[in-house]
Amino acid sequence: MRIEVNGEPRDIAATTVEGALSELGWGEARVATALNGDFLPSAARADQTLRDGDRLEVLAPMQGG
Amino acid sequence: MRDFYGVTLPGAMMLGTAQYPSPTIMAEAFEASSASVATVSLRREAGGGQAFWDLIRGLGLRVLPNTAGCHTAREAVTTARMAREVFQTDWIKLEVIGHADTLQPDPFGLLEAAKTLCAEGFQVFPYTTEDQVLAQRLVDAGCRVLMPWGAPIGSGMGLNNRHGLRSLRAAFPDIPMVIDAGLGLPSHAAEAMEMGFDAVLLNSAVAQAGDPVAMARAFGLAVQAGALARDADPMGVREMGMPSTPLLGKAWL
């Protein structure tokens, strides 16, 4: 299916957010996720299924003021 | 030193982590500044996030995540929730920007987001103006720290509205306050501390200086000087001159 990850279209085989993160190489990364604009806690990623067209944001610690 | 949500900080300086020439210079600037809090953000993971996190952890400081760049309460609340999970702290520097040029807080969005986040147990550090009505609303919403701006973010102008800031400080004597944004010189930081503010938060003034490490040290010293001066009970200001050398015993020449 095709979803949007951080603003870019991506074709993924996984059907859950946890699976998608692993497929995208962020399985072990310290990241926070939002699905379609809502915060998705890490504990909920395994049960959260993905649908075509979903918007996934994967954020990481970054410089800030 | 006043406590911030139950935490007594060893120093009154909070320093941002953005815009430094290199990670090494950033780390040296933190060391030189004696800052006790590092502000951080969340951005789309593009490969550097994990290394940055290791660098921040290496500083050994308390971390204050921000919601920089958010223009709506909804964005800010979602960002705060994500930041709490990643940084494992209830502290959040709440920014809801209302104007693209001045980067002035949106008071309505700020209050809305503060209500939601305080209710969820966040310990909110709201980036606000010197407006006392808004300050009271933020306190009523559960904020136990206020962060009035000195001047627009990144402007380096210092304390733009001294009267407003002094009035705000006097109106909420029991609320810890941090001057956040707009500082450009150590003298601005010293003045903020002399006025009775409990800490300052800055980034660009250090990171964009020609020598960020030296400037970090200068700010650290200025913050200490300002706090010492405030506690030393400064003399009153008078309109006319008053000789300091005794007149008694002056020679008749």
TrEMBL record, chain A:
SUPFAM superfamilies assigned to the protein according to its UniProt record, in alphabetical order: MoaD/ThiS (SSF54285)
Pfam families named in the record: ThiS (PF02597)
Gene3D superfamilies (UniProt xref): 3.10.20.30
InterPro entries: Beta-grasp_dom_sf, Mopterin_synth/thiamin_S_b, Thi_S, ThiS/MoaD-like
Matches recorded under CDD domains: Ubl_ThiS
Source organism, top-level taxon: Bacteria
NCBIfam families from the UniProt entry: thiS
Protein name, entry field: Sulfur carrier protein ThiS
Automatic annotation (TrEMBL), chain B:
Originating species: Paracoccus gahaiensis
Signal peptide range: none
Active site: K93 (schiff-base intermediate with dxp)
PANTHER family recorded: THIAZOLE SYNTHASE
Any one GO molecular function term: thiazole synthase activity
Keywords: Cytoplasm, Schiff base, Thiamine biosynthesis, Transferase
Biological role: Catalyzes the rearrangement of 1-deoxy-D-xylulose 5-phosphate (DXP) to produce the thiazole phosphate moiety of thiamine. Sulfur is provided by the thiocarboxylate moiety of the carrier protein ThiS. In vitro, sulfur can be provided by H(2)S.
Any Pfam family matching the protein: ThiG
Pathway(s) it belongs to: Cofactor biosynthesis; thiamine diphosphate biosynthesis
Positions contributing to 1-deoxy-D-xylulose 5-phosphate binding: G154, A181, G182, N203, S204
Transmembrane segments: none
Protein name: Thiazole synthase
Residues annotated as domain Thiazole synthase ThiG: 5-246
Quaternary assembly: Homotetramer. Forms heterodimers with either ThiH or ThiS.
A GO CC annotation given for this chain: cytoplasm
Record CDD domains: ThiG (cd04728)
E.C. no: 2.8.1.10
Major subcellular site: cytoplasm
Subcellular location: Cytoplasm
Catalytic reactions on record: [ThiS sulfur-carrier protein]-C-terminal-Gly-aminoethanethioate + 2-iminoacetate + 1-deoxy-D-xylulose 5-phosphate = [ThiS sulfur-carrier protein]-C-terminal Gly-Gly + 2-[(2R,5Z)-2-carboxy-4-methylthiazol-5(2H)-ylidene]ethyl phosphate + 2 H2O + H(+)
Gene behind the chain: thiG
Family membership noted in the UniProt record: Belongs to the ThiG family.
